[in-house]
Specification:
CATH architecture of the largest domain: Beta Barrel
Helix content: 10-25%
Radius of gyration: 24 Å
Distance between the termini: 64 Å
Largest sheet: 8 strands, antiparallel, barrel
Number of strands: 16
CATH topology of the largest domain: Cyclophilin
CATH superfamily of the largest domain: Cyclophilin-like
């Protein structure tokens, strides 16, 4: 074959070869596609007996409590919620890139503080960690700078130390913790905070983590920031009123928030996490091959909306 004809033949063959190579590439699904296709068995409904509704002027914040990590604090919080302790109190602190904190701003003044409901315990042990034995822990393969191992336990982001046999919840965005003074056992769950900024993982094992926000973080992160240095509102007029904090189980079923969470032990959750770890699409040309624990989102859905959408 003459050189000119050979070159012409190669020109026609090259697009066909490239097309064949493109068709042979494995098709990958995005994390959203994986989550949208997750079966019903991959989803769970939070236990109403361990779910708090925080009612603000702007809407409802939904919080899932973690009795497996902090059983005594959670029990006390539930007692206070049933007794209406936070009703009429406020968010009195909003520190940029850190936390919002709520409860009784006069809690340290015995002459002014709001009385605790009957049954509230005024002394609790520190519950910074729990024993890891017998707890299903779904580990991420990624290296973490704050703990030997990280992953998920009871559906919450957590860390584990095999040497000490301890497990603890991590300070990721949306985590709910119990404020305390200098003594480790000085919290009872009356003063609570939610992480609204970069995950302050240095606080892991320094405070008792009691749960995390599963809906309504936009309401908390939008609270105007308080003054330096720590964001406490000295002016009562700038505090954000709390209408009520109630257990979902004490709210009529018709008034409950319809929400489900993707099970962190499901194949769909693991596949979606892997898709984020090695994201490749028209924008992400270089897979990271790594993901930070606190950047693994917890997918939620409204099963009621999905049912309503069916013809």
């Amino acid at each position: 074959m003459r050189p000119a004809l050979l070159a012409l033949a190669l020109c026609f063959a090259l697009p066909l070869t490239l097309a064949a190579q493109e068709s042979e590439k494995p098709k990958t699904r995005s994390a959203k596609e994986i989550i949208d296709a997750a079966p019903a068995s991959a989803w769970r409904t939070p236990d109403p007996a361990n779910t708090l509704y925080m009612e603000l002027e702007g809407g409802r914040v939904v919080i899932e409590l973690a009795p497996g990590f902090a059983p005594e604090h959670v029990a006390n919080i539930k007692t206070m919620a049933k007794g209406g302790f936070w009703d009429g109190l406020n968010i009195y602190r909003s520190q940029d890139n850190f936390v919002v904190q709520f409860g009784d701003p006069d809690g340290d003044d015995e002459t002014k503080r709001k009385a605790f409901p009957a049954g509230t315990k005024e002394k609790l042990p520190a519950e910074f960690t729990r024993n890891a034995d017998g707890v299903a822990f779904h580990r991420l393969p990624d290296v973490d700078g704050w703990a030997p191992e990280v992953g998920f336990a009871d559906g919450f982001p957590a860390a584990r130390d095999p040497k000490s046999g301890k497990l603890w919840m991590t300070h990721c965005y949306g985590m709910l913790g119990a404020g305390r003074g200098n003594p480790p056992d000085s919290s009872i769950g009356a003063e609570l905070y939610v992480v609204i900024g970069q995950a302050p993982r240095a606080l892991d094992r320094q405070l008792t983590a009691v749960g995390r926000v599963i809906k309504g973080m936009d309401l908390l992160s939008a609270v105007p920031r308080g003054p330096e240095p720590m964001g406490f509102f000295e002016d009562p007029g700038k505090r954000v009123p709390i209408k009520a904090i109630r257990l979902a189980s004490d709210v009529p079923e018709a008034e409950r928030t319809s929400i489900q969470l993707l099970r962190t032990d499901s194949a769909a959750f693991q596949e979606a996490t892997e898709a984020r770890r090695n994201r490749v699409d028209d924008f992400y040309s270089i897979p990271a091959g790594h993901i930070d624990l606190c950047l693994v989102p917890l997918p939620t859905r409204d099963p009621g909306a999905k049912a309503a959408a069916k013809p």
